[in-house]
Design a protein that fits this description.
Structural class: alpha/beta
Number of strands: 11
Radius of gyration: 19 Å
Strand order of the largest sheet: 2-3-4-7-8-9-10
Strand content: 5-15%
């Protein structure tokens, strides 16, 4: 891992700068930037986002057609990163499991080299259950806590065994752990329950990834403050998305844990939808002002660039970032 003591060279690649930020290394030049997902590919490029495509006949496709899909996805990811100056790409693979995912990683690398940090979803911990499953899950916590813990451990171990196959030079860089734990009012599980049913398994998952040489970004929306200490204790490289709509203040998180974890996000998605242009700019400025000092900050929205957001509104925060998100 890179030492957090020396400033990073502005001539580094976007991937190298992203890694420097994850390691809380002071940077020169522009703050690294990415979005967990940029869904507005139809508006930006006239092409459907990879995660929104329907592959009902994937198994019936000839290999030539599948390869065209792989190439198209890789091109779209790279064009998105180039247009918005992303340092990292979060991949949504084609159907087909691990081997198909590895093919997509290889194609993106062939087309872009080591320019971008590449990551996949890699969570294996309990998030907020769906409305359909919420009652059953809650009852099971009370009636069968041992079984819940056994399942939690098994999910983590299966995942770590599976991702061993991604360990190869020039391949995947890391994982974004995208299980959501919190609502705007706070975590779905109480802090005590979270410590029992999630934290040990998140720590095991994170340590397993780190031992394999991967970087770990823990994502969760909502008010993380009641469990922030537990999230940091599991030792991810970064926390995303620091949701201001749930009262998460990047200034406070930076004060508490900026010396232990990289921070990503905090630009208010709600304001991008409903605020004035000046409110959007102020949210971007606030995130930069309090995230940047000392390094260890990556600029992004507080969720993702989701379907229905206006591209022109998203571009307001990019204007602020380009003008004001620069280290001396």
């Amino acid at each position: 891992m890179t030492s957090p003591s020396a400033a990073a060279d502005p001539g580094m690649t976007p991937r190298e700068r992203f890694i420097a930020a994850l390691n809380r290394q002071p940077l020169k030049g522009r703050v690294p930037h990415f979005e967990l997902v940029f869904f507005l590919t139809m508006e930006a490029f006239g092409r459907v986002h990879p995660s929104q495509r329907v592959y009902g006949q994937w198994d019936q496709m000839e290999e030539k057609e599948r390869q065209l899909h792989r190439e198209d996805l890789a091109d779209l990811y790279i064009r998105t990163a180039e247009r918005h100056e992303y340092s990292a790409i979060f991949l949504h693979p084609n159907p087909g499991g691990l081997e198909e995912t590895r093919r997509l990683i290889d194609i993106v690398r062939e087309k872009s080299g080591d320019r971008y940090f590449l990551m996949l979803h890699g969570d294996a911990t309990y998030g907020i259950p769906s409305g359909h499953d919420m009652l059953d899950f809650s009852c099971r916590l009370a009636d069968d806590p041992g079984g819940v813990k056994a399942d939690a451990a098994a999910m983590v171990e299966r995942t770590l065994q599976a991702v061993e196959r991604y360990r190869e030079p020039g391949g995947l860089d890391g994982f974004a752990l995208c299980a959501d734990y919190c609502l705007n009012s706070g975590p779905f599980l109480s802090p005590c329950q979270f410590a029992e049913f999630v934290t040990p398994y998140l720590a095991r998952l994170t340590r397993g990834y780190r031992d394999m040489g991967f970087y770990v970004i823990k994502h969760t929306d909502g008010n993380i403050m009641p469990i922030l200490d537990q999230l940091v204790q599991t030792e991810p490289h970064a926390l995303h998305s620091l949701d201001p709509q749930a009262g998460v203040d990047i200034a406070e998180v930076k004060r508490l844990y900026g010396d232990r974890v990289c921070l990503i996000g905090n630009v208010n998605c709600g304001l991008i939808d409903t605020g004035t242009d000046e409110q959007i700019r102020e949210s971007a400025r606030y995130a930069l002002k309090h995230g940047m000092p000392g390094g260890g900050y990556i600029f992004s929205t507080s969720n993702c660039v989701y379907t229905g957001m206006k591209l022109s509104r998203y571009e307001i925060i990019l204007d602020v970032w380009r003008r004001e998100g620069n280290y001396a």
